[in-house]
Structure formats: C-alpha cells, structure tokens
Write a structure and sequence with these properties.
It contains 13 helices and two strands. By secondary structure, the chain is mainly alpha-helical. It has two domains: 96 residues, Serine Threonine Protein Phosphatase 5, Tetratricopeptide repeat, CATH 1.25.40.20; 145 residues. It is globular, with a radius of gyration of 21 Å.
C-alpha cells in the first residue's frame, strides 16, 4: 500500500474510520501499523475510528467482538482516550455494552473505560444530606432518572459511580468529608450517614436493574429461542467483573416465560 493514510475526507473521517467497520482485520492491521496516531482522530460525530466502528455494528457476532478485542490493543498502546464522549454523549463502553460485546466491555473496564456518568455524578455531588436522609425515595427516583434506559448500561453506570465514590473521586453528599478514626469516638455525622445511604441506594438500584435485565434478557443474538434467553456465561462474566455486584445477593433463579432457571454464579 503506497497511498497516504493520513488523508481526511470531506466528512471529517480518516481512512481508519472507514476501514474499522468495513474491512477485514488484516487490512485494518496493515493500515494501523503505518500510522497508529490515526486512532486518536475524532470525526465530527466525536468518535475515533474504534468508537465509530462500534457504532456501525448492526447486530452481535462473535467474529466482530474478536475483531474489536484485537483492535483495542492499539487503543491501549497509543493511550487513546477511552472515555471521550461522542456528540450524543456515548462513550466507547456505552456502545460496546449496547452491542452485547461483554468480553470487550470487561477488557475496556479493566483498562479504565467508563460509561457516561456525568449527569448521575453531578446529581450525587450536588445532593444535600437532608434530602438524602429525609426523602430517600425521592432521592432514589431522581437518581434513576439520570441513568441509561438500557438496564445493562445502567448497571455499569452504577458500578462506575460506586467505584468513584469508594475511591474518593466523587464526593457525596456535597458537604461530606471523610472523618477517619474520629468517627469511632464521635459517632457518625449526618453527612457520613448520608454518604453510607448513597452507597446503599446504589446497591439497591443495581439489584433492581439486574432483575430487570434478567426479566428482559434476549441473549447475544436477536430472535433466539427460549433456551437462549437464559443468562449465559458471557454475561455472567461481565456482571462478576463489576465490583458492586459483589456487594449484593445475586439472584439465584431467572424466570423465562414462567419457567424458573437456576443461575450458578
């Protein structure tokens, strides 16, 4: 291939924006290895080539997931921003989850990728102690309105929020400050109680979203028979890699068309 690879077309896409969703893996490799910086370029939709390729996936296929698993190595090598949002507010992880790429999602999560949690994080950071403690049901409803309608994406948002709070990157309620060892002698302040309540609500909502997911699960392929609507090992792999899922009692059965199926985690 002697042609230039750094050309931008009239729509603001580079050659990889076209190649990733449409070309075979060897061809994409050949182009990428000529200029890895192409993976950084974002088109007018706000997507780099990997991001754009995910968006153009029409339906799940194992071959496509394997392809994106391999291509994701370039993102990590080049330290491409994994959390850039496109014009519609979707991160790469948001789209990977919507395409049911469970193993790819886990790989991205372990590399530091997040869902779009900006609205939920802003709500939690701005929440006041009194509103959390005195009106917990209202607080919960308002939190749920900030989450994605897709239960799996919502679960991952809740996991991201839980980790951000536990690691001290997201402070909630807005006046909360860790008390350290002083709490042992003075007792918990209302702010600390509200902080604990937030974590409890996150786990409660996660549990409800997990049950919602199980009630609507259709497998990784569309139009599957009933037996394929039962939660599979790939989805269980993703759920078990969400830190917040370790803090709840996971459902032991899934009901599909009135028939209970045991879930072995």
């Amino acid at each position: 291939m002697g042609a230039k690879v750094d050309v931008i077309d009239i729509d603001g896409n580079n050659i990889l924006h076209h190649a990733v969703p449409r070309s075979s893996l060897p061809i994409v490799h050949e182009i990428a290895l000529r200029d890895l910086t192409l993976f950084h370029h974002r088109n007018p939709e706000g997507r780099n080539p990997f991001h754009q390729g995910l968006e153009e996936v029409l339906r799940y296929s194992k071959e496509d997931e394997i392809k994106f698993m391999e291509l994701s190595d370039y993102l990590l090598k080049e330290r491409v921003d994994l959390n850039a949002e496109d014009r519609h507010g979707k991160t790469m992880l948001d789209i990977a989850l919507s395409k049911r790429f469970y193993h790819l999602s886990v790989k991205l999560i372990k590399a530091g990728a997040h869902t779009n949690i900006s609205s939920a994080a802003a709500f939690l950071h701005g929440s006041e102690t009194n509103s959390i403690l005195e009106r917990p049901k209202t607080f919960k409803k308002k939190l749920m309105k900030t989450l994605n309608e897709n239960p799996l994406i919502a679960m991952t948002q809740l996991n991201d929020l839980y980790i951000q709070i536990k690691e001290g990157h997201l402070r909630t309620p807005k006046d909360f400050a860790p008390q350290g060892g002083l709490a042992f002698f003075k007792g918990k302040s209302d702010d600390a109680k509200a902080h604990d309540k937030v974590l409890s609500v996150l786990k409660d909502v996660y549990d409800s979203k997990l049950n919602e997911l199980l009630g609507s699960y259709q497998g990784q392929h569309d139009n599957f028979e009933k037996k394929h609507q039962v939660i599979d090992e790939n989805l269980k792999f993703l759920i078990k890699n969400q830190e917040i899922s370790k803090k709840i009692e996971r459902p032991k059965t899934q009901i599909v068309e009135g028939v209970p199926h045991e879930i072995k985690w």
